[in-house]
Structure formats: structure tokens, C-alpha cells
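ok so i was messing around last nite and threw this chain in just to see what happens. nothing serious, just curious
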Amino acid sequence: MDGAASAEDRTGAPSSGEGGDLPSQIGPFRIRRELGHGGMGSVYLAEQLAPMERVVALKLVRASLRSPEAIIRFEAERQAMARLSHPNVATLYEAGTTDDGFPYFAMEFVPGEALIEYCDARNLSLDARLHLFLDVCDAVQHAHQKGLLHRDLKPDNILVTEVQGRAVPKVIDFGIAKALDEPLHAELRDGAVAGTPAFMSPEALRGSRDLDTSTDVYALGVLLYRLVTGLNPFRPGQRQVEDPEPPQRPSTQFRSLLPPAAQAHAARRSVRVRSLLARLERDLDWIILKAMENDRQRRYRTAQALATDLNHYLEERVVDAVPATLGYRAGRFIRRHRLAVLASSALILALIIGFLGTTVGLMRALEAEREARQAEAAAELEADRAERVSEFLVEIFKVSDPGEARGSTITARELLDRGAERLDRELRTQPLVRGRLMGTVGEVYSNLGLFAEAERMLAGSLELRGGTLPATDAELIATWLAVGRVQSLQGEYEAATKTLEAGLELLRSDPAVAELLAEGLVQLAALRRLLGRPDDAEALGREAIDVLAPVADRHPQSMASALTGLGWFLTSVNRQAEAIPLLEQALAILTPDVGNDHPEVAILRRMLGASLLYAGRYEEAERELTAAIEVQRSVLPASHPELGESYSLLGQLYSVSGQSDKALTWLELALETTEAGLGSEHPTIALIIQRLGLAYADQGSWDLARAAFERELAILEAIPNIDDRMVGLALNNLGWVLSDGLSQLEEGERILQRAVLIFESGNDPDQDYWVAISRWSLANNLR
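result:
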């Protein structure tokens, strides 16, 4: 039991819980009575005397359990509570130590009832219960964003109090919470299972240490099951640790109840049995079962995703958990547009009145007819668009039907190509539908590393929708940014700059969507750095973070992206001490939101690995880079450029740490992978070749090193407006190999002189450093 709980209704007369007298005072708190006790602590109702007077719940390690394990767990709970600040989480006020050296903390006293008890005692409707549950999801999402898993979500740990006549749920008891980034406390007993078994996910029941946000989502699913039905989702003895059976479908179990029991459960929800069954079967069955999937990859990944589907259900919108059949979508459409349907019905009535012979009635009938036709036309247009999108997607995926595929393996690329081919010739009378689908197909092409195809589809999407949608439409601007990103990934830096600047101009004229503005700023900052404008790059990166700061809780992925962009810039200018904390902060934000196996998390871990590498922290860098590669190999195509960059960085790590054989293996794999995805002249290839040339030189393979640096230089010099420092560094490396490795002193001197001129004429903040490098190489050559 947690320190925020009110135990007056459960414990009766106060007691010490251990047969002893209650302490009269602990620190600045006067003890009134014991509220209850749990496995590790006792909770007292107390009055804080200073520096302010208020009633609190005071939690203290129980005298009989003051073991090292108890102290560690208690301290972990205190740390967990200190991270949180949310209206639906009990507030930590103060922490301290008793005279005999044991920790305590004071927190908000919640004079409430457990969630389901509160709802049943007041016969709350399903909608009222779901709105309370949405507040709980919001609190759990907040904890996840702060890097905490609760691990013991159950009705007794969610108390409902009333504030100014409004029910407010409070999540309590973080006694076994676990940090997502690192343990808050050691799991002190091997094989120990922490939590309440009835609410634990299959992986938690097995004692897995690899838990993520979907573990709490599972517990929320069990809680929702009980909240809406009053029933346990599992039959007695059904919960097996190994190969567990899925829970019973809520409507199926409710339908099996005897009539008196079913009526009693329905009455507590202020609804009839038939209506409750209809609501369960319509959407709630699907939502609950998705939250309680045994396979966590198929669950909602976050509490926010679960809440979003519940909100869609309450708003009569399409729910992601439900199979998207045409009949289901049509039903959702009719419920959401009742007014249009009623208007059509009103037309019939108006015509009848008109035939009764009054002029006023006739005029009203005509007006009603006009309005009904307008409403009907709008409804038909939306329904037609939805049907066309559905038909298009069905036709694309029909290729994977066994009758069509005939035993062949259908790849994602083949599905996309089939869709793109159809879009080139179909839906020409529906430019908005066709444009939206082209944008979607283009984004997927981009995610697969097929950038030329992505740019064609995204540019087509812009052309089709640009003349119809307002210039400030968020979806249209998102496509602008996607085009710029794809152009940049293809090395079309000037075109990408113009595209992104145009998109940002639209956003700044009406910055309604902070995350889009921040995304554009991050992309443009990366281009500015690449094109030798580091001051602009840093300013843009910091502006992106400032834009997102007021809405960071609502857009964690966008904030993680902005922090990553600035961190990567700082890495590129050798400011690792500033870069590493930013990248670590981004990882702590992103991982709870999307999970450890998300491609964006892998990219972020790679960037962190690179920054650690340049800071000389090789073991940490190797851990991050290998973790990134493991995820990317499982989710990306073998020729994806992101995978090639990860291979390249790992190769560089082995090169600078003296493991030249490993370095060559990874760098040659990086070159092969990236060439397969981007071609042989892409700017990214230049960086891999540079690292490969250094590795060849380290092994004394001077001819191979020379060929590598000459190829790098040719690629860089073909890029308009490229950062001169990159060209200078390539010249410096080539001159060094010619002079020191191949004893071609005259040619080496000529190349090194070019490098000196470039560095001396530049405006890089580290200009003196690069001039010193090239002059040292030149002096060494002349000697």
C-alpha cells in the first residue's frame, strides 16, 4: 500500500501494524494514525508542522524490515516519485531521515477509494469510467516519458478523489518501479517476480528483465477489462508462465453469465445488458484484447496509443485495433455524421408537409431539401474518398494473396512498386486522394532507403495537392519537408536547401504545428553544417529546441529529434562534452515512447556511439554501435544507407583503437552496403572511403590508401558548395600518403599546399587547428 492512500475505509481503527506504539513525531511531522502497511513500509496520516502546515501521508520503512533490501527498495521508490509531476500522480512533498538513520518521505494524502470501488459505488456509466481511465493512461504515459515503468498497476494503486466536484484518479505506489534506462534498484533475489500476478504481462510473469512500456500497457488492459465488465479476464488456472493462453474475449465471457449476474454488472454501469454487450462487441473487445496481446510486439506500444484508440471510440471514429473493413468504416461514418443522415430524413417529412398545401410548408420543404442535398453530397464525397482509398489498398495487397502470389515471396518493395504503378494511371479524377496516397507511398520508399523513387512520389503529391489545399495546410507542409529530406539524402544539397527554406517560410508565417517547424529547422541545420555554415547550423538547432519546449510532453519524438540534431552538430565540431548529454537525453525521451527496437532509437544510439568514439570512450562507443546495428539488421533492408553508416562508424572505432583487421572488415562491408543503396558517387560514400583509406594506411597498404583518398576527393569536388574543410582534409590525407607512404614528395607537396590554402581561407571556428594539421604535414614532407 502506498503513502498516498487513504486507509480509513479499509483498516478501521488505527493500529501500528506491528503490535507496537505509534511514533508521536517523525521529523517535522506529527503522527495522527497509521493508514496501513505493505511489504516494505508503513504509512501514517500526519500533520506537517513546518515550514508549512498541511496534512500528508508519511511513508517509513517498517521497523521489523529495516534490512539492506528494504532500504534499497524504499530509496528506489523515493527516487521514482521525485521524477514525477502530474495531476494524476500523487505528489512527493519532502524526504528525510529519522533520528535513527532510516529514510522516510511525505507525499500528498489522497482521501479516496480504489478506482473500481469508486465507479461501482456510484454506478458510473461506461463513458464516465473510460474518461477516468484516460486520465490514468495520461499519468502512466507521463511516468514512461520520465523513464519509469510502474510494474504494479492495479485498482488498489489507483485512488479516486473528488476535487471541486470532479473525480480525479491518482496513480500511487511506485515501490517496485523500474527505470527504463537503468535499474532504480538491483533485483535483489534471482528469479523474483515483482508485481501482482493477475495484472502482470507474460514477459513479466516469466521474470524477464527486458521490460518496456508495453508491460504497463498490458496491466492497463487488464484494468480496463475489469472496469468495463466487472469480470476477471482469465479462467481459474489459465495463467501459465510458459505459453500462456490469451484472455477470454470480454463480450464472450459476459454473454456466458447467468441473467441475474449479467443484470447486476450492467446496472453498476447504468446500462442494460443488451446495450453493454453491443458496446463490447463493437470496439471495446478489440481495444482490450490488443492491450492484452501475449506478444508485446502486437500490443499498443505506449499508454498514449491505447488512450488514442479509446478517444477515437468515444468520438465514434475509426479505431486502429478493429479490422478496417468497409462495413466498419461505413458504420463509423454514419455515427459520426448523424446530422447529415437526419437531414436526409427531414427532407421526407418536409415534402409531406408541403403536399398538405401550405406555402410556408413548401418553402421549408425546399430549404430542407437543399440543405439535405448539400449534406448528402458532402457525405457521399467523404465516403467515396474512403472507398477509393480502401479499394486501392486492397488491390495492392491482393498480390500477397496465395492465389495471386502462387508460392512467391512478395517483398515490401514489390508492393510499393505495384502501388506506385497504379497511382501513375488511376485516381486522376480524385487529385486529393491520389496526392495523399502518393505522399504515403513516397514516405515508405524513403524509409526503405529508395530515395529516387521517394522523391518522385513526394514531388507528385505536392504538385497534385498544392493547387487545392491552403499553403499553410499541415499535411502539405509535412510533404514539403519530406521532399527536402529525401533530396538531402540523395546529395542534392542546393535543391534540398531551397525546398526546406520554402517550407519553413510557410510555417513561420503561420506556425500552428510546432513539431513540423522544429523538424524543418533540424533538417536545414544539418544542411548548413554540411555546406560550411556552422554558426547558422547551431542557431537553427537551438531554435528547434526552443520551439518545442512548451509542448515537449505532447511531442516527445519531435523533442528527441531536435536534441539529436543539435547533439550531432556539436559532435561534428568536436564539442563532445556538450553533445553526449544531449544525445543521452534524447535517448531517454525516445526509448520509452517507441521501444528499444525502433529504427529511430537505433540511429540515435549510433550517433551517441559516434560522439563517445570521438571523445575516446571506446568501450561505451562499441556497446552503442553494436546495439544499433543489431536493431537495424532486424528491421532495415540489407542495403539501407543507415546500416552502412553504422558499419562505417564501427569500422572507424576499430581503426582508431588499433584493431585494423576488424576495421577493414567493417569498413569494406559499409562501402558495399552503401553503394548498393545509394550508388557509387553519393557524398556519404566519401566519408566511408576516407575511413577506409586511413585503415589501409594503418596497415601499410599505401597504394590502396592513395586510391581511396583520390576517389574521396573526386566525389567531394563534384558537390556544389560543399564545406571546404572536407575537401581540405581529403587533400591533407592524400598528400600525407603520397609523401610518407609512397615517397612521391613533389606531388605530395603540391597537394598539401592546396590543403593549406583552403584551411587558411576558411571561416571555420576550428580553422587554426586545421591549418596546423596541414602545415605540420607539409613541414614533415619538406623535411
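not much to say yet. DSSP finds 32 helices and eleven strands in the chain.
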